[in-house]
Amino acid sequence: MFLPILFIFSLLPFSHSAVQDFCVGDLALPDTPAGYPCKKPAKVTVNDFVYSALGVAGNTSNLIKAAVTPAFVTQFPGLNGLGLSLARLDLAVDGVVPMHTHPGASEVLFVLEGTICAGFISSTDNVVYFQALNKGDIMIFPQGLLHFQINSGEGVAIAIVSFSSPSPGLQITDFALFGNNLPTELVVKTTFLDEAQVKKLKGVLGGTG
Amino acid sequence: MFLPILFIFSLLPFSHSAVQDFCVGDLALPDTPAGYPCKKPAKVTVNDFVYSALGVAGNTSNLIKAAVTPAFVTQFPGLNGLGLSLARLDLAVDGVVPMHTHPGASEVLFVLEGTICAGFISSTDNVVYFQALNKGDIMIFPQGLLHFQINSGEGVAIAIVSFSSPSPGLQITDFALFGNNLPTELVVKTTFLDEAQVKKLKGVLGGTG
Amino acid sequence: MFLPILFIFSLLPFSHSAVQDFCVGDLALPDTPAGYPCKKPAKVTVNDFVYSALGVAGNTSNLIKAAVTPAFVTQFPGLNGLGLSLARLDLAVDGVVPMHTHPGASEVLFVLEGTICAGFISSTDNVVYFQALNKGDIMIFPQGLLHFQINSGEGVAIAIVSFSSPSPGLQITDFALFGNNLPTELVVKTTFLDEAQVKKLKGVLGGTG
Amino acid sequence: MFLPILFIFSLLPFSHSAVQDFCVGDLALPDTPAGYPCKKPAKVTVNDFVYSALGVAGNTSNLIKAAVTPAFVTQFPGLNGLGLSLARLDLAVDGVVPMHTHPGASEVLFVLEGTICAGFISSTDNVVYFQALNKGDIMIFPQGLLHFQINSGEGVAIAIVSFSSPSPGLQITDFALFGNNLPTELVVKTTFLDEAQVKKLKGVLGGTG
Amino acid sequence: MFLPILFIFSLLPFSHSAVQDFCVGDLALPDTPAGYPCKKPAKVTVNDFVYSALGVAGNTSNLIKAAVTPAFVTQFPGLNGLGLSLARLDLAVDGVVPMHTHPGASEVLFVLEGTICAGFISSTDNVVYFQALNKGDIMIFPQGLLHFQINSGEGVAIAIVSFSSPSPGLQITDFALFGNNLPTELVVKTTFLDEAQVKKLKGVLGGTG
Amino acid sequence: MFLPILFIFSLLPFSHSAVQDFCVGDLALPDTPAGYPCKKPAKVTVNDFVYSALGVAGNTSNLIKAAVTPAFVTQFPGLNGLGLSLARLDLAVDGVVPMHTHPGASEVLFVLEGTICAGFISSTDNVVYFQALNKGDIMIFPQGLLHFQINSGEGVAIAIVSFSSPSPGLQITDFALFGNNLPTELVVKTTFLDEAQVKKLKGVLGGTG
């Protein structure tokens, strides 16, 4: 009574379905606009679907007293093609995630601990939406819009952020403007900032030119 | 020096951009395949982007000793059109989220507290992927595949789950098979379960026929 | 008068358009989240677009007296990237396609011969939609929802089913629960079925553990 | 033991899930780029998912001795948002579906009866792919490319065609060129056809100007 | 010989196809995540598909000596649902389009007249890509990344820019940071700019707080 | 003060973000349904984002007195995955772009110089939308619909056309019908054209059979 069942199995596209069920990214192959090519289903194990790095606090001993620990497709290839990813945000006292955007995804932040003042700026006549968030609150940051998070509490703050893409990207405005070789003259022309201000921040952020 | 700037503002499609930045769902209007129509930008406030219900434990005084508290588009309309949502999972001791699928989204679970034995079954020759997850671990459940979560620890377990759609849907296999008026004869024919077993579970889950 | 035309040809991206027109899958290369890489246009022939296996009845000498003959991307690589696929369903007398889902596609069934009782269960408060279908009737099964087909007529029944993806996937609930090494204890815990019932079906379906 | 279950039900977004499971089109409301707004879930019945018109032969008493009977979203609103549709093709002896395109979908044709010579023309250096198809054969016609079907057998031919969109559209080249008020002079200029030929076909197809 | 043709017409979903061919936006109805509901096909004329405002130079008598004249969905509703839009860029001598992003689209710029120094900053370790563009050159600005355009020539410069969405959005960093009521203290905290600099630019750009 | 910043850099997925920001196509690798695999970010330069061929008039010394100079993904791989492309259209006096479709994209045309009579035919009861366009006018041609452009002025006409895909494809009806080896008998049967007319155009356009 057993073989007949296997028989219908052999009529079903199982060798393929594995790829249709999921597509664990093979980071050794070139990426595509839709994500990485898939690891062979036969080589996929439960370890491709479990990741533990977000359980550990990021190191906040840095200028911004903050750390973002990503679980994006390059850290966690099981997310490849599935349309979402996570990250952990640690904010020491006075920590701040400076103005930034995620060019490739919308974000929802869940406060695990502490108090976070978070906000985003709409491209519509520049309306600002911000609020102090407490443990258990969630807040939305729509794709591509400038937003920030500040530890507005007494102690450390921790959040889990979730994104609508396996590779949301991250562009921190200050690093983009002052942390590279974009000539000071061009920064001044395109931001209206004073030259002295630009040079000062290039100094802090390692920019040249 | 101020008016000239406004002048270029007036050349930009601001009245529309608000809608392009985000589309807070107006649940009073009929849904569409892409989500709900958008609330008028002028009526949108920061409250449309912040939600607090996930900060409170769900009531686990039920048969499965578990509760799912969703922040899907119908609870949190700010997610409309943004391609993601969250939920909180509370598992009392011995709590279980029975075999289920999300027809509309992939899921990533983050363990906030306790120990959870979680797994999913691939449609590919039925390979089972499951593991005990501890605080800080995350696990992927690909779209549409049967999966489950069990509290395998001593105390309560809590998780935040994130989905790749504002309305992932939820189909708990037992409720679908035994919690409605699907005739016992059809359940037996399509599941190979014994009639007594089907009737027993229909009794527990409120099914008829 | 002939060369000048060829001249404008040479200005058009023909070498590429072939790939834009269609992308016959090269199954020897790793899949991607969007499908398989494309076979070289120069090697594509009409045979890549024609498939004959659905003209032959599947073998229904098995436990469920049914056979599904797929024309998914792995059988018919011409479908790669085109967003649809077909399959043939053969149901002997008393044949049944047990409760199952397609994680990756919606389905429309067209009855070629016989009478089929088909239905699906919505994830919404478990509403069941089912009906007896006669020759020429078509029925929709939305993506990811549990559904079934039963030969409810005197003779054989045949249907052509069409899917909204080249790789819809197929997860038959019984095979997923009882046809693998998922420990009996976990099946019991996540389905509320009696242990004896689980062991009985594991015996029938080749499950272990 | 029954109420507690309902309790967890009340925590789940059921009122919405119905819409997420499917979105039966309300044709009385204006369409959107993603399809029609959804009929209220409470008013949806199994009849919204079953359609019988393809069981009846189309009337082939016309110039082309052919009839296309569509089950697109406007005939069968249950398909709204689901990404596929069907149609029935009837070809009397010598019947032909003239050169046409579907601007919005790829197509797969399944021969139910008779013999059909079918083909399409790739936009790539105009390669023609055509073949005689017999009962049970399926053939792919990629989105937007010119294709045709001719009854090349002794008797009638019937096919079921499946599309990758609920509204594939249909543009029959002859009707587009000769069945409207596009001035003869413009048709001649843009097709290189002789004026007499254009006028002759405008006469047959009801064109003016 | 004429009526029979009309007969097959009546079998085709023409009343719907209009909507499937295009979906001219009805801006009086609420937007949706996929765009505006469609204007009734019967009311659509060629005027819905033709727009002339880009033929006129924008007014560059403003602080940035630049003007952007959009043909986005709100100005040109015929683009609704079609996945692209255009805009005209006028740069007087010394004109500049300051650092900005388009949250919803990638951009390609075509130089009609003059010389434009344009560039963007990748979110990848902040690499800057910029170059002087002459008449006839085109340049890509990927979605969501900071970019700028400066008139680097002797005379006026004009460009036509094309976007991959009917509503690309526009967020000019300076206006977002200094042109609204975002408290100076928050701007300082999230940008590392000196308070004096922030206040100075708020003064210029009409910001408060 | 500098190292700490780099430290948080090292926590961010920069090696990947490059690919997420853009995916310059590597045309040496096989295409996929979503586009070409990405060139290694480290090898990408500003030259991958700038293209100059549209600054030069195409050669219109051909039968149609017209030339299309594409900047599609195969000419300009920087467009890969970004959802848009451009082309330049040159029309000598009496030049015409014959009836054609773009199977993969909608189009917007911007008139740079001269006067162009352009139109498209909807698949809806064959409504024709056409108009004479002057310098600065833009016109929409929805995806997959037959359309044409004619130089209706005294001098040359030039246009920049923008598409909603990096590979829109191009199928010129005459070349598809008369420029290949599609047997005359099949052309006659599927177009109702007179055999003499078909043979005449096959002669002009290099068709055989």
Automatic annotation (TrEMBL), chains A, B, C, D, E, F:
Query: Which part of the chain is the Cupin type-1 domain?
Result: 52-199
Q: Which organism is it from?
A: Actinidia chinensis var. chinensis (Chinese soft-hair kiwi)
Q: Where in the cell is it found?
A: Secreted, Extracellular space, Apoplast
SMART domains assigned: Cupin_1
- Single GO molecular-function term? manganese ion binding
Source species, domain of life = Eukaryota
| InterPro entries on file | Cupin_1, Germin, Germin_Mn-BS, RmlC-like_jellyroll, RmlC_Cupin_sf
Q: Where are the transmembrane segments?
A: none
Pfam entry (one): Cupin_1
Q: List the disulfide bonds.
A: C23-C38
Main localization, broad class: secreted
Q: What is this protein called?
A: Germin-like protein
Which Gene3D superfamilies does the entry link to? Jelly Rolls (2.60.120.10)
